[in-house]
Amino acid sequence: MKIDLSGPLLNQLDKASKDFKAAMQREDYRTARKKALECANILRKLAQMIPHQRESYLEKAERWERVARNVEEGKSKKVVEKNGSDEDELRGYIEGLISKSNVKWDDIGGLDDVKKLMMETIVIAGLQKPESIKPWRGILLFGPPGTGKTLLAAAAAGSLNATFFNVKADKVLSKYFGESAKLVSALYSAARDYAPSIVFIDEFDALSLSRSGDVSEASRRMLSTLLAELDGFQDKKSDKLILTLAATNTPWDLDQAALSRFPRRIYVPLPDAKACAEIIKIHTKGLDISKLDLYDIAEMCVERLFSGRDISNLCQQAIWNMIRDTNPSLHKLAELPYDELKRKSLKTRALEMEDFMQAFEKVKSPLTKRDVEKYEKWSEEFGG
Ligand SMILES: Nc1ncnc2c1ncn2[C@@H]1O[C@H](COP(=O)(O)OP(=O)(O)OP(=O)(O)O)[C@@H](O)[C@H]1O
Ligand SMILES: [Mg+2]
User: Fold this and answer.
1) Is the pLDDT score of 67 beyond 50?
2) Among 96, 116, 134, where does a domain finish?
3) Among 58, 148, 230, 376, fewest CB within 10 Å belongs to which?
4) Among 309, 298, 249, 254, CA closest to 108
């Protein structure tokens, strides 16, 4: 999976822009100018990292450079401040949530029924159809950690070539506490602009805790705005495709209001033996696995209540065992200059059962049988 490096930069940007405002208020124009240039630099880095947002980041970078010049020329405080407004910041934050997904359905092992269901939903949403046929606008994915919920959402976006907004509900809440409802509106307005879009709301339960009842005012407001947006799309006769996918590990924490807006609730369970074997193949791609007894390993994974994430870790560990075995003096190469290192190649051999047996000692599932039963029970009662 690709690592998202833009997060830290966005945080830096956020901080620099706050520092800028504070400096302006103190009338400390030297610092303000420095901070404005810092914002511009960060935005230029973002422009490089996120090619499909390049234009918009560059435009903002230029705006900050203008701000820096204005500060220098001692222009009035008002002119300067107008350039970096809160709206921009919000929009910037939302645009930072966009990631182009290149996950394909084939990157996901097992889950055939789930994949089929999601594909059908997407196809129905896209097809011309009589008005009375209303496609699902929201799908709830629930299941134990690491079973592929995020992966499924990313594959849905990838297959549609849709803009993928990856929203972590708890993160938004902590960052935009009082303004999280405003953020949701801005989020859906951006989703409309960039349609087809998939809005993926991870850790959905952070918005709606039915049992404790002490859910904060901010999450309540964020949730109700979100639900209103979901309702709104159902009524609007728009051919823009915006699909909301929500994911949770604790579906029993969801309250009735939230559940009722997601009539489609899909259980993403732990993989069975066949699925485990497929996932092992996916995570050992490019390596020789002819010596492995895949089915034996798969059975061991099922017994240990492994999720796809655990299997991915297991494979990584087994691959490392193989690499250490074939390259015993690997660490010594660390002394070589990088150029020389780049000319050498890593030795590999076929993966063996022993690589996996050793790996099993290091990888443990966090789940118990009782946890799994809890999911199955909830699924029977509320899933579908
Ligand atoms: N069915 C699968 N096929 C292939 N790889 C998988 C599968 N399920 C999980 N993985 C691997 O595990 C990683 C974690 O999966 P993912 O992030 O989709 O889990 P999740 O269900 O969203 O977990 P969480 O509930 O903790 O957010 C993936 O990046 C992938 O490497
Ligand atoms: Mg996830």
Assistant:
1) yes
2) 96
3) 376
4) 309
**Atom number of ligand 1 nearest to Cα 110:** 1
Based on the number of CB atoms within 10 Å of its own CB, is 332 exposed (0-12), middle (13-18) or buried (19 or more)? exposed
Q: How far apart are CA 252 and CA 211, in angstroms?
A: 8
CA of 367, nearest ligand number: 1
Return phi, psi of residue 104, to 5°.
-110, 160
262 & 137 share domain: yes
Percentage of the chain modeled with pLDDT above 90: 42
Q: Which of 38, 40, 78 is nearest to 59 (CA)?
A: 40
Residue nearest to atom 7 of ligand 1 (CA): 308
Q: Among all ligands shown, which has an atom nearest to the Cα of 151?
A: 1
Give nearest CA residue, ligand 1 atom 19: 146
Report CA(145)–ligand 1 centroid distance (Å). 8
Q: Looking at ligand 1, which atom is closest to the CA of residue 275? A: 1
The verdict on residue 301 lying in a domain is: yes
Best CA proximity match to 146, nearest among 180, 178, 109:
109
For residue 182, what are the domain limits?
Answer: 105-270
Which of 159, 243, 238 is closest to 199 using CA atoms?
243
Rg of the Cα atoms in the chain: 24
CA separation (Å) from 137 to 119, 170, 231, 315, 366?
A: 13, 22, 9, 36, 33
| Two tokens, residue 84 | 């970096």
Ligand 1 site residues (CB inside 6 A) read 1, 108-111, 145-151, 247, 249, 279, 282, 308-309, 312
Work out the average pLDDT over 223-228: 81
Ligand nearest to the backbone CA of 307: 1
Q: How many CA atoms lie within 13 A of 48 on its CB side?
A: 7
73-109 pLDDT, tens digit per residue, is 665 444 444 445 667 778 888 888 888 788 999 999 9
226 and 248 inside one domain = yes
The C-alpha atoms of residue 51 and residue 59 are separated, in whole angstroms, by: 13
What's the number of domains the chain is made of? Answer: 3
Given a cut of 70, is residue 132 above it in pLDDT? yes
Instruction: Let me know whether 138 and 263 are in one domain.
Output: yes
Bridge partners, residue 197, by sequence: 163, 242
Given the CA of residue 109, which atom of ligand 1 is nearest to it?
Answer: 3
d(CA 180, CA 161): 28
